[in-house]
Amino acid sequence: MYTFVAIEIIIKFSTIIIYHIKYKGVIMNRFFVGVVSLTMLLSITSIQANEKHGATHEKHWDYSKNGPTHWGEFSKTCAEGKSQSPINIKPGKVVELNHKYDIALNEDVHTKAKVIDNGHSIKVTPKKGGTITLNGETFKLLQFHFHGKSEHTVDGKRYDMVAHLVHQNPKTKQLAVIAVFFKEGEKNPILDSVINGLGKEIDIDPQDLLPKDKAHYFHYVGSLTTPPCSENVQWYLLKQPSQASKEQIEAFRKYYVDNERPIQELHDRVVEGN
User: What is the pTM for the complete model shown?
Assistant: First the structure.
């Protein structure tokens, strides 16, 4: 928009100069026309370059200079929301799970998936995701991504790594996220597939991320852990962690080691468990 305004100003200015010169009886020659044209071209190019430079340096959230303490500048919800994530889970204060929040996981889908570094985490987007069933509603897997350390803590402890499986109800657009903790242990084949497939399309089955015990979890209502920090997200944190080798954890942390949001206040929310 600014480019067109500038062009209009330059053309009007040039017209005034031309008119003034003609009025004084000076004959315009090709050299003068060339100078005016070149001046206009250079001015327009400079304006476009400045606009492009400004767009390139547009402020964007991150985990350093524009980190979590500044996220309220990108979304007020990040600073003012009362149902924010992640939180610290205190098992001694967890109440019995309301059965309407029981979930059934149906993640066993062999599919192709694209693996990218989105600037905040390693993200995997399956062409055909699995589902979870919650309170009679089906939520489809949209993507899953990794954090170099777990964002949620249990009794103040962070796990070595975490995967967040993001699901959405196609009718209501509500989100439900399954958090899979990882602790150092045996090598996990699916993690090798992801890290070695960065920037490629891979064959994957998201169920391979899950631990053997998928029936026991913590549940609460929270938010996205990155801007815009939207709330009313159903969070499920599987109690049993999966395993990852030391080498695999280090491989992921070469990309992201501190991409976790600080713990948020629980306020009047309740954490349930089974």
Answer: 0.80
